Records
---
Amino acid sequence: MNEAPDLEYDDDMTAVLEAVWGEGFMSPGGTDEVDGILSGLELRDKSVLDIGCGLGGVDIHIASNYPVSHVTGIDIEADLIEKCKTLATMAGVSEKITFQQVAPGPLPFDAGSFDVVISKDAIIHIPDKHTLATDIHQVLKPGGIFTASDWLAGHEGELSPEMKAYVEAEGLDFGLATAETYKDALLSAGFENVQIQDRNAWYRTVARQEREALAGPLHDSLSSAVGHEFLDREIKVWDLMITVLDQGELRPTHLRAAKPS
Ligand SMILES: C[S@@+](CC[C@H](N)C(=O)[O-])C[C@H]1O[C@@H](n2cnc3c(N)ncnc32)[C@H](O)[C@@H]1O
C-alpha cells in the first residue's frame, strides 16, 4: 500500500500563514505582491499556469481581477488543492480556475499550453532549477512569459550556522539556489530578457512587521487556534528568518523571462 506523503503545510501551519499573509496566501505580500509580479503584462484572454498554488490566493486574485481566459493552479499537496477549490467557489471564480494535484517532476501539460507561467515562492521547494526552467519553457507558447517570486540563496557553498538553524526550524524541503543559478537555468532553457529583482530590503522591513503582529495583535486568537507552543515555535522561526535576511543569505526575489516568439 502506498503511504500518503508527509504534509509539509498542515492545518496549523496554514492557519498561521493565512493570519499573517491573508486568506489564501502562504507567502508574503498578498495581492500587492501578485500585482507586482504581473506588473506591465498584457493578460487579456491569456491562459495562466501557477506552479505551487498553495491555498489558491494567487489564482483567485488573478481570476477575479485580470481579464485572463483561464488559470490553472498546481500543487503537490492534495489537502491544499481541496482548500483552493473551496476558496475559489466562495469567491465565485471556480469556473475560471482549474486546481490540480500533481506529482513532483515534469509538468504534466502539452508543449505550448500556456501564455504565462507564474509562481509565487514555491520554486524554492524544487531543487533542480535547470530541469524546471526547461519544463516551463516547453509548456509556454512562443512569446510566452515566465514571471515569479521566489526565495533565493545569497551565496554559493556552505550555509552559515544561522542559515542552517533557520532552514532546520522551518522544517520544509528547501532547494535554495542563487540568482546566478536561476539566470543560468533560464538562459540555458532558451529564455531571453531575463530580469532578476532583489527584494531582500523590502522583506527585511515587512518580516519585522509580521513578527510584531504574531507576538502582538494576532497572538491570542492564533494561540487558541493552533496552541501557544506551535505559535511560539513559529515566532522563533520568524526571528531566525530575520537574522538570515539581515545577513543577506535569504533573498526574496522577483524573476521574469520571455520565451522567444
Ligand atoms: C510557500 S508555499 C506558496 C504557495 C502559494 N504560491 C502562495 O504564494 O500562497 C509553496 C507551495 O509550493 C508547493 N510545492 C512544493 N513542491 C512543489 C512541486 N514540485 N510542484 C508544485 N508545487 C509544489 C507546496 O506544496 C506549497 O503549497
Note: The pocket of S-adenosylmethionine is lined by residues 9, 25-27, 51-55, 57-58, 74-77, 80, 102, 104, 120-122, 125-126 (CB under 6 Å).
---
Amino acid sequence: MPHPTLLTQGRIGSVETRNRIVLPAMDQNSCEDGEITDLNIAHYEARARGGVGLLILETSAVAWPIGATSLHQPALSEDRFIPGLKRLAEAAHRHGSKMFVQMCHHGKTAGVDAMQDREQLVPSVPLPADENDLSSVTMDELMKMAGLTGGKRAQQRAATIDDLVWVVDQFADAAERVQKAGLDGIEVHAAHGYLISTFLSPHYNLRDDEYGGSVENRARLLVEVVSAIRKRCGSDFGIIVRLDGREYVEGGITPELSAEYAVLAESAGADAIHVSASGPNSMGVGFTNGPLPWQPDQYLGLAAVVKQSVSIPVIAVGRIFPDAAEKHLKNGDCDFVSMGRQLLADPDLPAKLLSEKPDRVRTCINCFVCVAQNFWDGAPICAVNAELGHYDEGPLRLATERRKVVVVGGGPGGMETARVAAVRGHSVTLLEKSPHLGGTARFSSLTTPMNAELVRYLSTEISLLDVDIRTSTPVTAGLLRELNADVVVVATGARRERPDIPGAGLPHVFSGDDLRGLLTGDDPAAASRLPVHRRLMVSIGRSLGFMSSMDRVRSMSKRWMPIGKRVVVVGGGLVGVELAEYLAERGRSVTVLEEGEKLGVEMAHPRRARSLFEARNHGVSFITGAQLTGITESGVSYLVGDETHTVRSDAVVIASGVHTDESIAEQLRTDGFDVRVVGDAASVGYIEGAVRTGYLAGRSI
Ligand SMILES: Cc1cc2nc3c(=O)[nH]c(=O)nc-3n(C[C@H](O)[C@H](O)[C@H](O)COP(=O)(O)O)c2cc1C
C-alpha cells in the first residue's frame, strides 16, 4: 500500500480516527439563520462516505450573530442549534468518520457586527494601517463584498476585561452544545486574524494589561478558553487548537512564537495543535501566503517546528498531496494531515488511496475558485468537481434508458460530459480531431501545470469507463449516422480572432495557441511562419525530443524558446497574464497591453492577485486602457486616452478575441441531430464553465 502511515488509525485525546486524513474547516455558507441545512449534511456526509478520518465543521460562531462573519455560517449560541449539529454527528458517524466543530469569534472580520451596528472586538485600536490591497479586485467583486456588512463601514473597539470574560463563557457554552449534539470535539480557532489570533499576534495586540505585552499575556485569552472548555466538557471530549505557525506580516507570529503558544495550549488541556498560517492583505496576494497557500507543502516546516515543542499530536495543512503527506508523517514532522481544497475537489480521496487507486484522485488545480465565493458569502464551487455547492441537485443516477451519446471535442467539457454520461450507463463515443485529449486545458498546462492533472484525471476515468475514444477523428454527419448517435454533445471550444488592425497578419504575430503549438510541435503552420533560424530551432527541438511531453516542453523552454527577446502580449485576461508570466520566466522582456482597466478578470481574485504579483516580479509590464492601433515588424502601437505610444517587439502574442462558436453545432442540427453544446463553444467559462456545463449535459441525457 503506497500510503500506509496516512491510512493508519490515529488518536486525538480520547478520540480515535480510522486514518490520519483531516478535512479542515471550510466555510460552506449553507446554513439558514444559523441552522444546519440538508446542504451542509450532504456536503459533510459525502466526505465521511469518502473515508475521511476526521471532519472539522466550518468555522461556527460561538456567540452568533455577535462576532459572526456570516448569517449563513453555523451558529452555536443557543440550544435550538443542537438538533442540526446532532444530524451532522449522525451523518459523520454513520460512515465511520469522527467530527469536530471549529469554534470562533471573528473579531475584526465579524461582518455581521458591522451590518448590525455593533463594534467589532479587537485587542487594541487602531488596527495597524491596513492590510487590504484592493488593486486587483474588480468593481463587481467589491460591490458583492460590500454586501457582507450591508455596505456599512466596520468600527472596532478594544475588548474590555468584561468582554473577554463573556467571550470565554460563550466558547464554553458553545462547546457544551457541541458535546450534547454527540459530536466528538471542537477546534478552537486561534488563527487567521480572528479574535483569539489577534490577541496572540504581536502585530495586532498592543495592550499593556494582563492580555498583552508578554507571550503569556497574549496567550491568556486562548488559555482561558481552552481551560474553560476542558473544565466544562471533561476529558472525554477532543480539543484541537488551530494556530498560525506564521503570520506573513512584519512583527507577526513566528514559528518559534507559535511553538510557545502551542506549549501553553497543551498545558491548558488541548489534545492537538493544527498548524496553519495567515497573511494580511486578505483581498490581495497576502491571502495566498496565508491562509490559502500557493505552494505545495508551504506550511509543513511550521508544523515541524511546533511538533518539536509539544507532546500532543500536530496536524499539518497547506496543499499537501498524499505522497508528501505519507513522507512527512513518516519523518515525524506531523501526526495528521489536513487536506482542504483537495477534499473539496475529490471527497473520495481516502477511499481511492485505500483501494490503491491514487491515479483516480481528482486533483485540486489550485485555481482558488472555491474560496473566492466566500468573499461574498457564497457557497464554494469547484472548477474540477461540478457537484460542489450543488448538492441540491442530488447524486448522479443511472439513466432510465440507455442511449448512444457522441461527444465532439476532447477538452475538459467534452471529457466531463463523456464521464458523466458513461457513469449513468449510456454508451459513449468521444471524437477528437487532434491526436491528443485535453483541448485548451492540455495546452494551458504549459503555463499552468496543474491543468494537466485535470486532463490526466478525466482521460483516465473515461478510458476506465469504456468510453470509445477516437482521437485524430473530426466529426462528420456520416460518422454520427454510422455511430447511431441519439444525442450529440458539441464541446469544440471557443473561436479566437486576431484583432482587425494593420499588421495583425505579420509572420511574427502569434495567437496563444500558435505559440503553444510552436513549442509542442503540434502546429507546423505556426512554425512555417518563423524566420529560418528560428524554424531551425523548432526542428532541432523536435528532433531532440524537447516536445515529447508538456512537462518536458515546460522545462526545456527555460533554455530553448523559438521566439525573440521582446514580446508584446495583446490582452491581459487569464490567458495573457499566464503567458506573460511564462515568457518572462524564460528571459523574455514582456509587455502586456490590455484594453480594459483590470487584468486577469476571469481568474478567481486570490489567484489573480498572485499571478499578477508573480508576473510583475518577473519584470512583466502591464499597460491597461491600451487601444491597439497597429503592428509593424519592429513594434506595436497603441493609444492610451488620446496619446499614441509604441513598444518595441520581436514577437507579438495575441491573447484576446475569444468568442463562442456554435458553428459545428448548428451544422449538425441542420443535419437532423439532437445537439447540445457545452464549454466555451456555448459560453466562454474556461475550465470551471467547461466542467460544469459538461457535467450538466451528462446528467441531463
Ligand atoms: C472554501 C474555503 C473555506 C475555508 N474556510 C475556513 C474556515 O472556516 N476556517 C478555517 O480555519 N480555515 C478555512 N479555510 C482554510 C482551510 O481550512 C485550509 O487551512 C486551507 O484551505 C489550506 O489547506 P489546503 O491547501 O489543503 O486547501 C478555508 C479554505 C477554503 C478553500
Note: The domain at 10-392 is CATH 3.20.20.70 (TIM Barrel).
